[in-house]
Protein 1
Amino acid sequence: MMREQEIKKAIEKSTDGATVTVLKKGRILVTVPAAAAVSTLICLKAVGFEHLSAISCTDWLEQGELELVYHLWSYQDKVHLMLKTRLARENPQTVTAIPVFPHTQTYEREIHEMYGVHFEGNPRLTPFLLEHWEGPPPMRRDFQMRDYVKEKFGVEERIS
Amino acid sequence: MVQQVISMIVLPVIALVIAVFFLGLSRKITARIHRRHGPPLYQPLIDVVKLLTQKENISHGTIFDLGIVLSVAGGLATILFIPAGGLHPLSSSGDFLVVLYLMLLSPLGLALAAGASENPNASIGVSRKFILALGYEVPFLLAALAVMVHFRTTSLVEIVSLQRESLLNWSVFTLPLPALATFLVLPAMLSIRPFDFAGAPQEVASGPLVELGGKYLAFAAIQGALHTYIVLAIFVDLYLGGGANILTFFLKMLAVFFIGVCINGVMPRFRVKQALIYLWKWPAIIAFAGLVIVMWTSR
Amino acid sequence: MDRADIAKTLKSPANWGQKYSLWAVYFCTGCGVIEIPPVITSRWDAERFGVLPMATPRQGNLFLITGYVSLKTMGAIIRTYDQMPDPKYVVGFGSCPVNGGMYWDSYNTIKHLDKYLPVDGWIAGCMPRPEAIFVAVVHLWQMIDKGMATGYQKYKENYEYYERNQREILPHLPKFAGEKTEAVGQTL
């Protein structure tokens, strides 16, 4: 736990507005406001978190927010860090992390397609997995999946 | 005269039967090497019947059709010049050179058809095939030149008859270095692993055969089988004393073929650069050394 | 196996050839293809049935739709199926082509393969075991013998029905090779 506490102090010193929690050995959670996400990524990369594993998105429907989670891994300390930011559900916008980690282009493309988040600066927010999609972003929790499926693919009557 | 005409008709039939049998035998032996049962020996016959009875044959134009016809015709024409046991319908002095030229006719026909098939995989496969041919022609021709100089003839029938008297007269004992060089490039001439990158399913989607279906694929399979027969027949005629009759000829071809299938069953595939480096290095050196020795001793 | 049945062979060599030489197009459409490598390798040898994997649709006459079919894959499957020469057989492999399977309420997978392609047989399971695949091959032999494996003819006769269903889920599917729609650049 010593190393995690040192990392926590280093992160708190180099950023402001970041809330750092050490969950257990090898797990750290950092929460920042949306505008500070990319600059915090730069600080974290300097502290030793050089590998971005993935970016995931959670839809907090009751609170009216989308939460972006950047999963980072530090090879030298073997610590997994989650960087969480919240965006508003209507017209979610944030800045791309491509200058920090170039491969975020694909994760942001997927989140743009599935949740509707716009990443300013990503040159390739084009259709990815869905084929000529015309509906709302499908991974949002207010997407009526059963109704959409019934309408698009039809319903087979039960033979009873 | 009549005997010549009869053997001109009989020899291609015998060659086709042997060639298709070798196809089935290779699949069975490969399966047994892999410790599984494998298809029955007459499976290529079933495959050819299926391909010929397909209701739709997708063609890509006249050159596509003619290329396939040319490849099979070239293969059958080459067979007429290679003595097989007692059958040598069209043999004369210089027929070995004719065979060396005609051998290229059937791959050329297949390349024409592949070029007409408008598929980039086919073009890549054809270019790989020609690079392979460039690779194995160097040691093969050096060794063949050594054989021709040693026997002072360019006729395959004379080469066979000069090895006839006893076992020790076989070229594999009197000309060991050219025989070794040709044996080392035999997998490349047969297009079996490790040299089957021209028609690799995983890399180039079957190469030249990518757009062939139905009866075109049946003829391409027959052409492949005939090419195997031609290469094995040349090897047996040059280095293993031909055959007194068709049966001993067939048994010698079977022995060489068996070794080839065993090599094919256990080896992976070379890259193009690796294959070329291999073919131009030791086999070429050994063939050249053999040629120098032959020219020195036969002054 | 009834390969040694000479009378049946002589009655219809075409059926004999089509049955014992089913070359499957090695297009791995979904996650179900994980069961195909065990089938074609040494332990459960499919070559003794005459079944070989082929790299190109021009050489294949059996199409195994393994696993779920997303909309993007459906376009590729239709194009591949159109390139195969007749006679060709389609076998739905796993429970996803049958009724959607595990992804029955997914917004991006088709639920009934039968509406878009003519299917000759189904193999139930998630995933079917190799033994089930061999039972299906033997069933397909019997169907070919009786002349019941006529999916390709049904496709040609009822092409308007299939094309209507295909365009319902894939509105930008180009017609036969050569026709360009304005949205051709968007698929993929």
Protein 2
Amino acid sequence: MTNSKFIGAMLATTLLAGAAAAEDVTLTIESWRNDDLAIWQDEIIPAFEAANPGIKLKFTPSAPAEYNAVLNSKLDAGSAGDIITCRPFDASLALFEAGHLADISGIEGMANFSAVAKSGWSTDDASTQFCVPMASVIHGFIYNKDAFVEVGVEVPKTEAEFFAALDKIKEDGNYTPMAMGTNDQWEAATMGYNNIGPNYWKGEEGRLALLSGDQKLTDEAWVSPYRQLAKWGAYLGDGYEAQTYPDSQNIFTLGRAAVYPAGSWEISGFNALVDFEMGAFYPPVQNAGDTCYISDHTDIGIGMNAATPNKEAAETFLNWVGSSEFATIFANSLPGFFPLSSAEVTLEDPLAQEIISWRGECESTIRSTYQVLSRGTPNLENDTWNASVAVIKGEESPEDAGKRLQDGLASWYKPQM
Amino acid sequence: MSNPENKPKFRWHIVVFLAPAVLVYTAVMIYPLFNTLRLSLFTEVDQERMFVGLQNFRTLFGQSVWSDQFWNALGNNLWFFVVHMLVQNPIGIALAAILSHPKLRFASFYRSAIFIPTILSFVIVGFAWKLILSPIWGIAPDMLDAIGLKSLYAPWLGKEAYALTALSLVSVWQFVGIPMMLIYAALLSIPDEILEAAEVEGITGLAAFWKIKLPLILPSIGIISILTFVANFNAFDLIYAAQGALAGPDYSTDILGTFMYRTFFGFQLQLGDPHMGSTIASAMFAIILVGVCIYLFGIQSRMRRYQF
């Protein structure tokens, strides 16, 4: 009898505990940022849970390379989390079209974002929004301040000054002028073409004109960046043809190179490795006084599983992601991933501060090939990698590269036909 | 006289013993193979899978966007194979001939040392050689410098003209142990009586190799050639580990395997297309099938065999 009483008591406590837990809603977050697990657990989740009692968060990331495949199969099986971290552009758009991501155009937090920030996660006509923009990465050049002082060059503002500085560093001979290789190809396009290009095609203006078919890749604005890239080859180190991305990172952080064409995501990694002072400058403009344009590329968003049973809680969370509180926590734990919200954010890392300050001076745009234009075959992004490398190596003329890309794009993209 | 005991019984044990292998093989090889062939006849329109017959093959061979890449990959693959046939197999045979020499000391040490790269992962081999050949940290430039040949050094893996040959040679380095082992075994199985008889006739040394041993190991060389062919046309890992899925520079190291991978699983902004990917996989299957058939019916059936 004592035994059965005991079991009864145990059963009762289980029921009670179950009932207590049921009052809290737990939201599961799918993500590929397993690097950020500690930041979510130590900073973001406690901050949110303190502000919103009754909602618990569970961050369950998977490996970046497997994320898309894992997420797709979970969504199809109906076992995916309530909150879904969104890759920019077509990968997420495909999920929205398949009915997996909910339409969240209506939530309040969305008002804190500019049209460019939202473009990564809206339908092609920008009418429907399916993810809250979370972070972007900014392109520019990181440089070795000590090397600049030693050689005696100033931070370049114009293209002429840029090449004069590189010439001087090359003449000095102590430093490789610029650390970039062409072996992995993407740096040439991402840190090369799409880094310096917005100054020529005037950021969003040119990008949207390309989307609408008013401009072509053979236009001067789109060929000129290749003309500049063609000059880069001479300033990259010996054997840059076989230099990989980690090679370039190492060359720069070991203090062997003066300039590093960069994305802001390098900041936290570089901070831990360098023993010299780093600075950053935005892509030099053609003539002194020109408006500068920077690639401020939307990289991470966050949305809601359309099949979630906890719709309200999920919306509360997404709203909070759009707030300045989240933006501040996120930006300071991950310097180099900048919040996209227009809300006021204070950054502590000096290099990150310098880079984000460009938003005030320059016009922001995103990488030209990401929205819509890389949807067909041949893939414009892949072709841009290839063309940028070929131009740097001098194997293809800038004009031929422009023509090849235009022909490829025109073969499937209606507005360009 | 019809005795029921004389009637052969159905031998169930054969079925029972074959079943596990047949089931496993069907599940992991035969079913995926036929499913891939089937998938190449479909395409996806608006989230729906649609049967399109041979349309995908028409796209692959008819549209220059696809066919240029396909022929480029096939051409590179052929060169990859040619390098293996001209370098790997002759070296393998030569090594086996040397190793089987009765007076060679430390033969088993050399045998293991040469065979070890074969069991290494492609990723290790790819990264190790990338480092060795690296213009920045690599030992290749320094070694050439030490013997005064620095001018011969080039960042081979980054140059279109050399990258594929360089990677083929890396693959040769990795796999030269396989032909060596197979030929070594074949050489050991040649009876001493034959060699002694030849010696009595005055055929020794190199002449004995060319006139006696080589004809006797020809069937093994045939097997090695066909194994090399199949392995090379299915190759993917080394190129992927060393050059990535875009098989740079400028697709000069793109082989059928990397082309298929890029198409099937997608790459960067390019979304995966399982149907076109399967089409390429089917084309690879056809190429290998034709190659193997030519060997089986054209060469192997005419080859003379010697029974000892």
Protein 3
Amino acid sequence: MLSADSISLKRGNKLLLDRISLTVKPGEVLSIVGPNGAGKSSLLKILCGEVTPDSGSVKMSNGCINHWTKAEMARVRAVLPQSSVLSFPFKVEEVVSMGRSPHRAYSSKQRDNQIVAKAMALVDIQHLSGRDINSLSGGERQRVHLARVLSQIWDPISNQKNDQNNNQQRYLLLDEPTSALDMRHQHAVFDIARRFALEQNIAVLTIVHDLNLASQYSDQVVMLLNGQVQYYGQTVDGLQQDKICSVFDIDAKVLQPTELDFPIIITQPKRHSEFKIIAALDALV
Amino acid sequence: MNKTWVKALMSNEVVSSKKTPRVSGSFLSGLKRFNFWTDRTVTSTILLLGLLGVLCIVSLGTGAVTISPSQVLTILSSTIGLVSATESISAIDSIQIAVLLEIRAPRVALCVVVGAGLAVSGATMQGVFRNPLADPGLIGVSSGAALAAVSVIVLGSIKLPVIGQGLEQFLGSSTLPIAAFVGGLITTFVVYQLGTREGHTDVSTVLLAGIAVNAIAAAGIGLLMYMADDEQLRTLTYWTMGSFGGANWDQFWAVGPWVLLGTLILPLYAPALNALLLGDAEAGHLGFQLETVKRIMFLLVAMIVGASVAASGVIGFVGLVVPHLIRQIQGSDYRRLIPSSALLGASLLLAADLLARTMVSPAEMPIGIITAVLGGPFFIFLLIRRKGVEH
């Protein structure tokens, strides 16, 4: 599992993150939600070892993150940053196959090609394989990079020193993976993330803005505001009206249809009486 | 494609070890498609090798003493020991043999090594800086080396104190190339240090520092040119604009190994350079030790370019244009880009040198003029074409 123990981060006098603790277990999807500037991306950077916190520690598979070598880490953990810009004409398949580069000493070329093809099919980009990545739309590009990080942790790697009888645990960290995607692909991406978690026993952590996606696909949720955790726990208990209203400074209504096992969240701007969505809903229900 | 996506999503493809027929089908076509050496790559690599071979033979045969291609091949193969010397060589003039083996061969060898080295360095710098306009000179190595060389030429005649004289006696005729090599390394080190803070190298700071240091070096060269007498000025021209006029085997053995060593090590870092293009963070997540990789890249490029300048002066445009041309043909994957750039860079410099020594024969033109005359318009052509693609 991946866990943060009371991490804090300061920049100048400003406390960007204040004693944050969380744990993602294998097979689980954890969503981090919160308004802009809440510290979500900083938290993700600390969790993946890119930034060192001022205090607190991050553990991955029970070993402190500083004790992992980058090469070891890359074989079991993939990170999808917000945007990657390539200034050179790379083909889509070439970008996706970069995800296999941590395994180049261990995997066969045949297996790598197979994984790259499968990852591309999974995120629905196989028809783009020969295209120059710079000729694609933002959403298509985002899916290319998703395929790249999926191919990075596609196979369990057999064990080294860390745990004796199992395969190494794998991790997938996503920073707003759906920001440029249409609705079909937003659902597709989260569906893939959840299937990876459930079927491959991967621990998935993702930053997401759409609360309905968080509600539908994640097991746990962390609600961040001004670098502090406002809520951390089961998604169903977290995405409640009062919490959403106070964290995001909006009006919200949470519906729980009996036939669904996740709540639906409807939002409208605060103090704008001309938006009558919630009043209308109240009348309806 | 709609359906394939749903299928991929619905089937247990992610986890199942057994493949459905559809998947194995796409696997087979996938294998073909992802084959590292695609048909186009194979064809263009063969063409590049052929071009280099032809240019070598033409270059060896062209000049004041003409040697036909078949004679070139006979002399070469008998030198290596493929053909018995006495029989085949008898028909060929001994002057021709001497000219080929002692004058032209070292020049061609040096051209090939320097051309390959410059092109590979250019490709590397473009990757490290994530900037298609980067050039090996950007980290200050060429201007630093040129400044050192020019200093030796102009200030060398001034009687130095005892230590200087002793040093000059010790180094003898290699003072100039050694000064150039060391000058290039020192300048690169300064630029690198300026861009590095707390162990982290910021490439955009390195780039700006490089521009500043290049300007300072250019000012230094300008000042020395102002101080130089006529004869020094002529020698100087060949250093600032490049020439293979002084090539001999001694020079080749002094410089070639450095360039060759760097050119052979760089391809090992192709996966790291690919990842680096995604961004620093991404490359780190893919398991590459970024700072180490950058340091090694700077060091290798400084070594290659420093040694090249020591041998032949500053030759522009090869490092900039060649990787671009290869990208147009074979794409940007560094695993192919580096070896192909080496081949094309060698060919381009051979052709430029051929022009440099035949166009105004018996005099010679600085080779940097030729590469700039060829490279400049070509680069503009690339820019226009790219503009056309984008709009």
Protein 4
Amino acid sequence: MSAAPSTAPLLDVRNVEKTFPGVRALTGVSFDVRAGEVHALLGENGAGKSTLIKIVSGVYQPDAGEILIDGRATRFASPEDAKRAGVATIYQELLLFPELTVAENIFLGHAPRAGGGRIDWRVMRAKAEALLASLEINDLAADQIVGALSVGHRQRVEILRALSHDARILIMDEPTAALTEGDVTRLFDIVGRLKARGVGIVYISHRLDELFEIADRVTVLRDGAYVGSRQVADTNAAELVQMMVGRRIENLFPKFAVPIGGPVLEARGLVCHPMTKDVSLTVRAGEIVGLAGLVGSGRSELAQVLFGITPAEHGDIQLAGKAVQIDSPERARARGIAYVPEDRGVQGLVRPMSVLHNFSLAALGALSRLGFIDRAAERRMAEAGVQRFSVKTSSVDEVAGRLSGGNQQKIVLGKWLANNPKLLILDEPTRGIDVGAKAEIHRLMCELAGEGVAILMISSELPEVLGMSDRVLVMREGRLVAEFDREHATSEAVGAAMMGSDATMERAA
Amino acid sequence: MSAIPITSAAGPRGGVLRRFASQEALLAVAVIGLAVIVGFVNPRFLAYRNLADILLGNAYIAIAAIGMSMVIVSGNIDISVGALIGVLATVSGSLAVAGAPTAVTWLAPLVLGVAVMAAQGVVVAYLRIPAIVVTLGMLSILKGGLISVTGGKWITDLPQSFHLADLNVLGVPMPVVIMVAATVLAALRMRYSPSGRAVYATGGNAEAARLCGVNPQRTVVMVFAIHGLFAGLATLVYATQLRVIQSTTPSGLELTIITASVVGGVSILGGVGTVVGSTLAAILIAEITSALVFINVSPYWTDALRGGLILVTVIADILRRQRRAARGWKK
């Protein structure tokens, strides 16, 4: 694919090991990146990807093994060392200063100087503009304030900052996780340009389809160990998934039919300015209803109306045939509604609390006798949850914030299920988690449906919606515009409804 | 699935170790260790009279620190409590001198304390004004108001029945009884009741707490109200020991109380800490102050030492967090 020069790789990691107290994070991992190559790192949550990139970027020091830059053994004592050697990392959480301009963010710490140590603003601006021009980014100006920019633009600023350090090795940790489709296309365009310049790119993503689009090689890690590397041209999704999880996943969406009972949720004419316009829907016991729609179509807002975060201004909600008023999350919870929000980091978890206390947080009322928590029952519940969700933790007394992202997500889900909800609203339940955890969550959804829980699932992944739903509702501009039963829900039909009748699907996912 | 669920297999032992390494255990060891060491240098330090003085003279700080700890755990702070205690003491003493029934003189600071703090809690929770701003304002109002109203006059000739602190229960002086009872009750509530858990959840992540059905606003108001109750109790213990109540606000009292909370292991960032820790820390600080006298160090060093203690604790806390971060604490 790429014209790899015959010289030593830009970055060569050999047999790296890293142990944290009680955890073997990496054992004998090797990995290399050549100039002008995109090398993807693939693995489930906790497979060791983050540890590996932290070693390469100087955050951690390896216990054993070597790192070679241009064929020379190197030791990074700090991230600064790595930066000096030309390794730049773009983390998921962008590290920018919102109050400063694009140019100031790019050159923070190494601004061009005029005489007497003063910052040469003119040169800085010119250099920033040159960088922008070099990637043909013409909708971003050097003097814009970063805080007002979209996520996609901010990410571009981070990339420019890396380039301003003459980075030759760029590590991108799930760069598309928070991007819109248009921004993803732009990012891939930029990645293409960087490749052409001879930058070596380490690309981490959970989205397999992306890897096939932009990566040249892929290395798979599992449980901290090296599983194998493949040329992307010579492999396929099934093989990579198998390498990641160590077994074949026969069916990514193991939806099985369960008897569907009476209506659990019946909502009529819900209105909540500005994004919920006259929405009526029904979800029955044992039924999984998929809510499809483009980003910004009002799906999450509808979920928030149903859960009482932004109570409906008009309309009626009936739960199990009884008219109810849902005017706060407290009330919603008491009525047996559970809501797993999209942004689990901010909305889902109390990080300083233990796994135990996070698990029980939504069920404290049920766990209490005479105003005190039944701690034995609480512990049983949390331990059952840890077991059921395969949460990797040393004990339920561990602080939740210390677990990996995927494990934190499992706790958020588990916490709600501990409450035995009748209606479960899931907002992007599998976004940003690895294939194995995804399959587990899908299996759990089926199990819950089997137990008679009504599930409303919001998902931007059409295959997930089509694979998991008994019925698909499509939202557009705050209204429900189409409804399909399982047989008639094809990607073409649902996609067309999402885009609007006259628009054609650009990408039938 | 490659994930291996490890449940309580390592739980009990890990739990015991953790308990040993906890801030409370550390403080308890420090309280006893310091007594032993200072007693070795000067045995008179261990005299019953001195140990009793340390406890009696500082029980009110420990009591106020309980409420303060709850406020800080909930993600807030209160710097008006020292001034409030001054005002409540004056109100209570004035009522006593004016001949109000003893019950009224004792109840007034409790009721007033709850009212003032709950009002601040409402402003913090519902108007979303940072607690430090609200309570700084209240500090000035109380301080200025008290001087203006009383003119700084001393309250003397308190009736004998006023002195609650002189009573004892089965030989245990009332201030110690109140301190222990308040600590135990508050600890039980914080640790084992849903509303206590709500305080930790609110301080740890108010948004997540809200989605779990906790009402963070109500929780904050409740925490401030309880803090007011403890401030009232602290006032009772403090004022009823005095023969003369100066109608001014004790300077720096809020800092001593906050120090006890922080040294007791309450994270200034919210979400972490216990009231047992803060009570032990209040005792430790009082003990250190007294020890200085017994080993012939100028009492002027007290403030510096107290400052040193708070810095050491906070630095230790931060270092512990950083070590965790190196082990993969996700932000």
